[in-house]
């Protein structure tokens, strides 16, 4: 028997997919399949972990978990559910919803929940945890931290918090001195070091509320796209940010893309980084791509 667990993050930002527990239950009730689902609103910190552990103990032939939330909610789900015999999926109801941009939700409706397919997608192992979309260091993480601070003070800012944070961060640029020891897609080793404005390790193509750092990134190719931004003259930075957001930066002499499968990023000092929008501090990141590690829900068109 198949069981679908819907987890609704009640704190996620509102989007066009403002889906309530009652909406999901009514959809399955009309289809005569209400016993196939359980729908839960998260109410406290680590509630998702509690739900996944409980779900894992149940004896169903097929277990599917669909999170209704943003990139942070998805990151939390992946880190508590990976390694368990579950298929994962996402209804994007967050503020940025960047991972969802790797798929098409144009024709998504509640009826899509009744008929979907699955496919295998990649995952990134970062030290002792996991990232499903992008892990990055530098300017973008500084922007993210400021955006979170703005949203905490005024949640109504929504996506405009990221624009405000970007403008503010331009007045206080910092560069991270990093050493990279990389394994390339042909199996060879490659070392590089320097001072970088941005270092983004991409499984997906989008992050930062719509920025497109790796237009060629695919979530099921067993490859990570490492984007490095060198020092950029201040006068050129605003136009470069616009190109970076639109995915039109690939010909720039200030940015490079390296396709890798694993590696280490080190610094002599602690730096700020983020995995799928979850900020952390470290002085070393060990990473590797886990090819086709997750079974993922694809909503039918």
From TrEMBL:
Protein name: Diacylglycerol kinase
Keyword Lipid metabolism: yes
InterPro entries in the record: ATP-NAD_kinase_N, Diacylglycerol/lipid_kinase, Diacylglycerol_kinase_cat_dom, Lipid_Phosphate_FormReg, NAD/diacylglycerol_kinase_sf, YegS/DAGK_C
Cited PROSITE patterns: DAGK
Keyword annotations from UniProtKB, A to Z: ATP-binding, Kinase, Lipid biosynthesis, Lipid metabolism, Nucleotide-binding, Phospholipid biosynthesis, Phospholipid metabolism, Transferase
A matching Pfam family: YegS_C
MF annotations from Gene Ontology: ATP binding; kinase activity
GO biological process: phospholipid biosynthetic process
Cofactor(s) the protein needs: Mg(2+)
Similarity annotation: Belongs to the diacylglycerol/lipid kinase family.
Classification via NCBIfam families: YegS/Rv2252/BmrU family lipid kinase
Domain DAGKc: 1-130
